[in-house]
């Protein structure tokens, strides 16, 4: 059975007033299943989460603040009538939460939205992650296309292929040279200037990562992804690797292809 | 007024007071789960420090407290009154459960505990020991007019 605990990060007892409990320094506070619905209405837990005083631990896994709130609130919120007929984007969102939480909740076909969610839950593609790797083994990387998956063929001619509707979750950069500068350009479906749709400024770094501000990086099934290392002045990188992790945003399965780029 | 009349009048007044006082059905608070220190019991489905059990009697007085939980252990329960959301939160009394799963307390234990009219009654688990109380319930009997 799934377990849900609250962990004290503050180092002193944390009062959750509207639940009438104080989270001790140790051990983790167990929320029992028959208290889930009341906790879902808590406002004070959000305050404590936002302050970094506590975090939710689900089945032994420490969640992010966002996921902590989803676990504590969103499902109950969704199951109320105000979300009886959610938009498709909301369906994807809530489906993800439902899959994350697992068998604690049962989805009933009480409305069209719930029917869609139940249908999505029967599949398995949504929520899966795929990491695309791009390499450039050059000594001075500036204004160069990267290779896709070490194919030794630059991605302007052999791009990465997106197999499912997805969005970016994280990007990382690594190279052998300290304090190097590069504009990491992400192209979609072409190499023309109009196909550039996102640039990540990696400045004075040897390694770098990015998990925020990625909402604009979305792909549809069949899209092609390319990485271009654009000169940012100063020290140029050498022997660089760019990895971008995408997460599927729906549950559509199938196959396809194009005769040309 | 003759002595007989006076005695009858006093008896009627006594019966009236007893009947009035006896209509108080008692105050019940409880909570499932394992309780750490400073866990407020629930009044219905709300935590009692936010919304307690309403008490509207005049000349209220606590006469008996019964505490029960799943395990035999030692802990205290503090009984408060307030005006909602811990406003004017005031400790009425503390009962000490010693290695017991159920324990009864009377005026002999906690003395005279008057309860003001139009307040909310709340209860909190404190001073728990290694074996934490579970699924605790408290039944308070109070008299009033």
Short description:
Chain A is α+β, with helices and mostly antiparallel strands and 261 residues long. Chain A is 19% helix and 33% strand.
Question: What do these coordinates show?
Answer:
The complex is a heterodimer of chains A (261) and B (145). Chain A contains five helices and 17 strands. With 261 residues, chain A is of the alpha+beta class. Chain A folds into three domains: 78 residues, no CATH class; 36 residues, no CATH class; 120 residues, Jelly Rolls. Chain A is elongated. The relative contact order of chain A is 0.14. About 9% of the residues of chain A have low confidence. Chain B is of the alpha+beta class. Chain B has one domain: Galactose-binding domain-like (Jelly Rolls, Sandwich). Chain B is 17% helix and 54% strand. Chain B is built from two helices and ten strands. The mean pLDDT of chain B is 89. Chains A and B meet through strand 4 of A and strand 1 and strand 2 of B.
Number of strands of chain A: 17
- The rounded Rg of chain B comes to 17 Å
Q: Sheet with the most strands of chain B?
A: 8 strands, antiparallel
Total number of strands of chain B:
10
Series of H and E elements of chain A: EEEEHHEEHHHEEEEEEEEEEE
Main sheet specs of chain A: 6 strands, antiparallel
Q: How far do the termini of chain B sit from each other? A: 27 Å
**Any idea what the CATH architecture of chain B is?**
Sandwich
Shape of chain B: elongated
Which range does the strand content of chain B fall in?
A: over 45%
CATH superfamily of chain B: Galactose-binding domain-like
Order of helices and strands of chain B: HEEEEEEEHEEE
Low-confidence stretches of chain A: 76-84, 102-115
What's the rounded overall pLDDT mean of chain B? 89
> How many H/I helices of chain B?
2
């Amino acid at each position: 059975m799934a377990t849900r605990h609250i962990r004290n990060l503050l180092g002193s007892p944390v009062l959750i007033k509207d639940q009438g409990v104080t989270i001790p320094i140790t051990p983790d506070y167990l929320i029992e299943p028959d208290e889930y619905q009341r906790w879902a209405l808590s406002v004070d837990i959000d305050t404590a989460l936002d302050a970094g005083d506590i975090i939710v631990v689900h089945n032994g896994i420490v969640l992010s603040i966002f996921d902590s709130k989803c676990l504590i609130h969103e499902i109950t919120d969704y199951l109320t009538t105000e979300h009886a007929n959610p938009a498709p984007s909301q369906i994807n969102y809530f489906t993800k939460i439902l899959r994350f939480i697992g068998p604690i909740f049962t989805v009933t076909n009480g409305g069209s939205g719930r029917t869609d969610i139940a249908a999505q839950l029967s599949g398995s593609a949504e929520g899966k992650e795929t990491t695309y790797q791009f390499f450039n083994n050059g000594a001075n990387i500036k204004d160069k296309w990267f290779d896709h998956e070490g194919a030794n063929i630059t991605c302007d001619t052999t791009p990465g292929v997106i197999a499912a509707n997805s969005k970016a979750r994280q990007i990382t950069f690594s190279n052998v040279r300290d304090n190097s500068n590069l504009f990491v350009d992400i192209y979609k479906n072409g190499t023309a200037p109009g196909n550039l749709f996102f640039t990540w400024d990696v400045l004075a770094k040897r390694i770098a990562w990015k998990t925020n501000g990625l909402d604009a990086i979305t792909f549809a099934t069949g899209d092609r992804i390319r990485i271009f290392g654009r000169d940012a002045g100063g020290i140029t990188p050498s022997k660089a690797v760019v990895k971008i992790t995408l997460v599927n945003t729906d549950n559509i399965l199938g196959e396809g292809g194009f005769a040309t780029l | 007024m003759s002595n007989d009349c006076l005695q009858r009048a006093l008896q009627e007044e006594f019966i009236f007071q007893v009947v009035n006082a006896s209509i108080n059905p008692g105050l019940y608070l409880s909570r499932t789960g394992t309780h750490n220190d400073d866990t407020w019991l629930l009044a219905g489905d709300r935590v009692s420090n936010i919304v307690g059990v309403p008490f509207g009697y005049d000349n209220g007085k606590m006469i008996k407290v019964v505490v029960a939980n799943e395990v035999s252990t030692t802990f205290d329960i503090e009984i408060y009154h307030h005006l909602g959301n811990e406003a004017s939160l005031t400790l009425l009394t503390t009962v000490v459960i010693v290695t017991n799963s159920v324990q009864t307390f009377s005026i002999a234990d906690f003395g005279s505990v008057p309860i003001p009219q139009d307040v909310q009654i709340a209860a909190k688990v404190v001073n728990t020991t290694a074996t934490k109380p579970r699924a605790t319930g408290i039944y308070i009997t109070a008299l009033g007019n």
